[in-house]
Amino acid sequence: MSLEQAGKETVRRSGCRRAAVRTAAVAAVLIVLTPIGLWFGRDYVERRVRSEIKTTLASLESIDAAGRRLTLRTDSVAFDLFDGWLNIDRLVVRWLPPETVADTVSALASPGETPAEYARLHDEFTLTIESLRVNGIPWWDVIVNNAAALESVDLFNIKLNGIIHSGDPLAAIPTSSEALLESDARIRPPNEADNSIEFMLRPHPDSLEAQTAAEELLFGAVEILGIQRLTLDSIGVEMDYVAAGDTARAAKLNYGRFEVGELGFFRRPGGRFLAAAGSLQSRVMGAGYLQPGQDYMFNVESFNFDSDAGSVALKQLNYYLTIDAVDYLDKFAFREDAFSVIGASLFCTELDVNRLLRGGGVDLGKALIEDVEFEVLSDKRHAVNPDGAPPQMPHEVIRNLPFFVNIDSLQVRNARLIYAERQRDWSVPGQLYWERMRVDVTGLNNDSSGGKRPVVLLSAAGDFMSEGRMFLDLELPLFADGLDFTCEGGLDGMALNNLNQFVSIGELIRIDEGRNESARFSMAVQDGRAAGVVDARYRNLRITLLNKEHRQKGGLFSRFQGFLANAFVIRTDNQPEDDGSIETGTIEYQMKNDDTFLAFLWKSVRSGLGDLLGFG
C-alpha cells in the first residue's frame, strides 16, 4: 500500500469513528431525553384529555325551548395514556323541570297549560354513577382509524331517581311488535353469520336532548365503538308518581346487574345509530312496580336472563292488590273479579332470544312455574255489564295475542288455587281450593299458517278441599269457530260436607252427611254446547235446602223441603247393582253470554250431577 493510500485509509477510519461517536452520543441523548419527553408529553396529553372530557360534559348541558335543563357533573377524572384506562368518579346527570319543584308537588298547571303539558315539563330525573371504569382504550385506533375497540366498561353503584307527573311511567313502552317498529326503536334481523342481537334506534321527540347527549358521548371522537364487555353493577331505581297532590312509589329496584358481551355501536345517517350485542346477561333483585292510578302491585325477588343459554329465571313473582279485595270490588257498579298471583317462580329454557328481540314473538322449549298461589274472588252481587264484551275463552286469548307464541312444554308444580264467590245477601264468600296442583300443557302455538290447526293438551291433578284427589284432562283446538273441546275428570274420596263452604252459599244447599267414593265425568263441547255423562259413587247423602232469608239456619219451610228432598227426591246412595249397572247423570248445558270458562265447565258438570241426584 502506498503512503497516499495509507493516509486515505487512516482518514476514512477516523471519520467512521467520529460518526460512530456522534451516533452513539445522539442515541445516548435520545435514551436519556425520550423518557423525560414522554413523561412531560404524557402529562400534557393526559391533562388535555381530562380537560376535554370535562369540557365535553359541560358542553352536553343544555336548556331546551321549554326551559328544561340537562346538567352533568363529575368529581374527578383519571386517565393513563400508555395503559389505556379512564376512571370517572361520581358522574351525576340530572334532567330538571323549568323551575325546581318539591319532592311532593301539589301545584296546579298554569293558566292555559294543559295537565299533560304540565306533567311533561315537570318530570324530574337524577342518574348517579359512583364509578365508571374504562379499560383497554386503543388511542392509536382512535386517532388513525376513527374507531375504538374497548376491552371493558364497568359502571358501579348506579342510582336512578325520578318524580313522574305524566302518568304511567311504562305507558310509552310499545306493547306490540308493530308499535315497536313505528316508535322509538327499529329492530333489525340478526346477522346470520354470528347470530348477534341488533337494534336500530331513532330519536323520539320527547327524548331528543337526552339522545343527542348520549350520541355525543358515544361518538364524539369515533364513528365505530366496540366494547368487549359492558357491566352495570349494583343498580338502584326509585320512581315516584305524583297525581292530584298525592305521591306514590311507582317503581323500585333494589339491586341489579347487567352484563353485555361484544357490544358494538355504529353511527348511521339521519341521527340514527346501530347497536349490536353478542350476548346479554342480567340479574335483578327486589324489583317492584305499582301501576299509577291502579290498586295492583307487581314485584319480584330476583330476575336472571342469559341470552347465550336462552334462559330466564324469576323467583318470588307477586302480582296482588294493595287494598282489601272486598273494598276493591265495591268500587265497581257491575260484576268484576279480583285476583292475585303470589310467590311464583318461573324458569324458561331454549328461548329464541333473537326472535323475541326483533319482535318475532315468544318461542321457547320449556316453561316451568313452581310454588305459586292463585287467588280469585268473583263478585256475583252485581249484574253483568250490558255494554261489556263476553269473557274470552282460553283459545281466543291464545290465538288473539298480538305476537307469535310457541311453548313446547308448560309445567306447573306445587300450585295452590283458591276460588271464591261473593253472593248477594251473604256476608262471607263461598270458597273452593286446590292444593299441591300439578299441570302439564303442550301445544301452545298460535300460528295457523300453512294449514296448521294447533291443539292444546292439558292434564291437571291436585288435592281438593284438603281431602279429595281431583284430576282433569282437556283437549282444546285453538282455531275452532266456536268453543269446542273435549275433557274428562274425576274426584276420588272425600266427605261431601267439605263442600259446604261453597255450595251452601252458591247453591243454597247444606250437605249434612255423605261420602264420595269416586266420581267421573266426560263431555264434549261443540260451539258452546256441552253434552256428556257423570258417574258418581257415593253413600248416605243427606242435605238441607237453604233460603236467602234464613241464611244457613234455614226456616221451618226449608227444613220441610229438606225432608221431602231427602225422602222422595234425592238419590241418597249410588252404588253398582248386582249386574254391575249404576245410575249416571246426563250433562246438558248451553254456554251463557256471561259465562267464564271455569263457570261454563262447572255449570256443565253441575247439570250432570243434578240429573244424577234427582234435581235434573
How far apart the termini lie comes to 141 Å
Count of strand segments: 23
Residue fraction in strands: over 45%
Number of helical elements: 11
Question: Rg, please?
Answer: 36 Å
Q: Which class best fits the helix and strand makeup?
A: alpha+beta
Structure overview:
This protein is of the alpha+beta class and 616 residues long. Helices cover 24% and strands 46% of the residues. It has a 23-stranded mixed sheet that branches. The longest helix is centred in the first third of the chain and has 58 residues. The chain starts with a helix and ends with a helix. About 12% of the residues have low confidence.
In short:
This protein is 24% helix and 46% strand.
Secondary structure layout:
Elements: H1 3-60, E1 62-63, E2 69-80, E3 85-96, H2 115-122, E4 124-135, H3 139-145, E5 147-164, H4 177-182, E6 185-186, E7 197-201, H5 208-219, E8 224-243, E9 246-268, E10 272-290, E11 296-306, E12 311-321, H6 325-329, E13 337-349, H7 353-357, E14 362-370, E15 373-379, H8 394-399, E16 405-422, E17 430-445, E18 455-464, E19 468-477, E20 485-495, H9 500-506, E21 509-526, E22 529-545, H10 556-569, E23 585-590, H11 597-613
Parallel strand pairs: 5-8, 14-16, 15-16
Antiparallel strand pairs: 1-2, 2-3, 3-4, 4-5, 6-7, 7-10, 8-9, 9-10, 10-11, 11-12, 12-13, 13-14, 13-15, 16-17, 17-18, 18-19, 19-20, 20-21, 21-22, 22-23
